[in-house]
Each structure stands twice: as C-alpha cells, then as structure tokens.
Amino acid sequence: MTSQMKSMRTLTREWLALPDQYDRFTRYLRDNGLTTATRLLLGIIVIGLGVCALLNRFSPAGPTSTIALFFNSVVVISCFVVGVSWWVFGPTKRRSFGFVVFCDIAVTISVVGDSSQLARLLTCVIFALIGIYIAYFHNPKLQIAHLTFSVVMIVVAAQPILFGPDRDPALGVSKVLVVVTALVVCAFISQIVLTMLSMDASSSDLDPLTGLLNRRGLDRHVEKVLAEFQRQESAALLVIAIDIDRFKTINDVHGHDVGDRIILRVAQRLSAWAHADAVVARVGGDEFILAQRLSVPAIGPMLDSIGPAMHSNTDEIPSTSSIGIAVRTHKLTAGEERATAFTDMQKVADSAMYESKRLGGGRVHTIVTTASR
C-alpha cells in the first residue's frame, strides 16, 4: 500500500511538472496539416455557444432581469467576435490563455443569468469542454485552476436547488455529482489520451521528450521548406545547429531530471523564436536543428535575435548553447537534389556551431554559402 501511495505521489508530481503543451501540440497539428481545420472547428464551437446563449433569451428558463439580459448580450456578441477572430487572426499562446479565461467568464455569466435551477447546472457542463481544450493545449496547473473554479461555480449554481424555497437536496446533490464527474472525467481522459499520443511519438516523427521532430521527422518535413525556398524569388534559407554547452557536466552535477528540463527549455525557446513555418528538430541528446526560409532583408534582425532569445541570466540552472548558422541565398542549381543540398547546409551549420564551441560556447557563428560552393 505504501509503495502504491509513493507511486501515486510520484505520478502526480510528474504530471504537475509537465510543461505547457501549446507549442508542442500546435506544431503537431501544423506538421499534420490540421491547423486550419482546428481553427475552423474552435471558431464554430465558440460561435455555437453564442447561438445557444442567443436562443436562451427566448426561453422561459433564460435570463429575465435587465442585468441578466445585458450580460447575455455581452456573451452573445463576444462569442461571435472571438469565433471570427479565431479564423481571421489565428491563435498564439497568449491568445489561447485569454481564450480559456474568456470561456470560463462567458459560461459563468450564462450560469448566473439562467432563471431555471436545472438549466444553471446543465450550462456548467460546458466547463468540461474547456477542460478538454486545456488538456491538449496547456499545462496541468492551468487545468487545476480551471477545475477548481468550475467546481466552485457548480456549487454556486446548485445553491437554489439545494437551499432555496423550492429546494430538492437529493436532486441537487445528484445533479452536482453528475456535472462534476463529467468535468473531471473529460479532463483526465483527455490527459490520458495525450499521454498515450506522447508515448506513441517515440515510434513516429516526433521526439517524445520535447515534441519536436526527431531526425526521421526532420528528413521528411524539411522538403517543404526547401520547396518554398526554391519557389520564392527573394528568399534565403537558414539552417541552424544548436548544441547545449557542457551538457554532460550538467547531467553529472544536477542529475538527468534537470538535464531533461534544460533540453525542454531550449526546445521551447527555439520553437518560440522560429517562424511558424520553420522545421525544428531534436536530432541528438542535446543537439537541435532548425531549417526555415525568410526574406533576405530579414536575415540580419533574425541572426541578431537568436542569441538573446536562447539565453537568460535568470534561469534557475543557467546554461548556454553554441549556435552555428548556415545561410544560403542562391537557388538550387540544375541537377542539385534537395536532400543533398540540405545535408550540405547542415554540415556547414555544424561547422559553424563547432567554431562557436571552440571559442568558449554561448556564441553565435554564421557562415554564408556562395553559389560556387
């Protein structure tokens, strides 16, 4: 029994330590061509909630007071605006957090506005849908905050049926248990599915620790970047090699758990720095490769920004990385295969990275290839 309890405590700690899933899951959606479909689906869901709130105005169980009708209108309009903006502007991590907060507030307003006791509890079921979204796109801490807030709102919604003039405690308790069970089960089943996907990633194109592409995934997905580079007239191709400095020492001194957290930190910073259409991969224990195209005028600002983006003096366990960059502005020549061109660029980036390491690490070294190369 004691060993089982320890196992549960360890499992809980590991779950709470999971990083935010946004970059990882959105990259998975993008690499599998599901980004547009996901944006469309989420927009439809939010607008659908607005339609439900609008229809609720015409129900005897819906909002009746002037204040309730006002807030119902706010929810309806906000749902339509958020749904359309999800299609037009697309999500970012910050917008995604805001989306969760908006949904919780909108559901809360709808719950408070309902005049029917059972309708209030029924509306609380929407909290379960928000929990599913959090499980896939964000972190366990946000999930716990959402679940706590949702349970409080469910209890508030149940007050009239539990303690009001027409109270029915048995019915109220049973309905509260049903809604809370749906809320918790949906959240944790989604988490289990996500964990299973992560486990399956070890045999796919994804690195199971970081969610980035692995070496096989890199070889498959870089073809699209090369094709776009060849097609765009004034484009440059960047291939970046990154290696964490003195990583073996970090593992020996602080342990492999800290080493894994540093790898995750580098992966997240690299993903945040890269353009949305970049291909980012973890190709070794502490080695990363990035390939992306960009306009020639953007080369300088991008190269200047990568060093500060990858390093921070406020890290609990400081680390630095040696960064090597290969830049190519000339197109592939007749008969030059894309796979071979990328391999050559990767070798140049590796050489630049080793030069950064030779100079002491924590540096960025760039090599521009020429047409005669």
UniProtKB/TrEMBL annotation:
PROSITE patterns: GGDEF (PS50887). The keyword Transcription regulation does not apply. One of its GO terms (molecular function) is diguanylate cyclase activity. The chain crosses the membrane at residues 37-56, 68-89, 96-112, 118-137, 144-164, 176-197. Residues 235-369 form the GGDEF domain. It comes from the Bacteria. Gene3D superfamilies: 3.30.70.270. InterPro entries: Diguanylate_Cyclase, GGDEF_dom, Nucleotide_cyclase, Rev_trsase/Diguanyl_cyclase. CDD domains: GGDEF. Keywords: Membrane, Nucleotidyltransferase, Transferase, Transmembrane, Transmembrane helix. SUPFAM superfamilies: Nucleotide cyclase (SSF55073). Pfam families: GGDEF. Its EC number is 2.7.7.65. NCBIfam families: GGDEF (TIGR00254). PANTHER family: DIGUANYLATE CYCLASE DGCM-RELATED, REGULATORY COMPONENTS OF SENSORY TRANSDUCTION SYSTEM. This is GGDEF domain-containing protein.
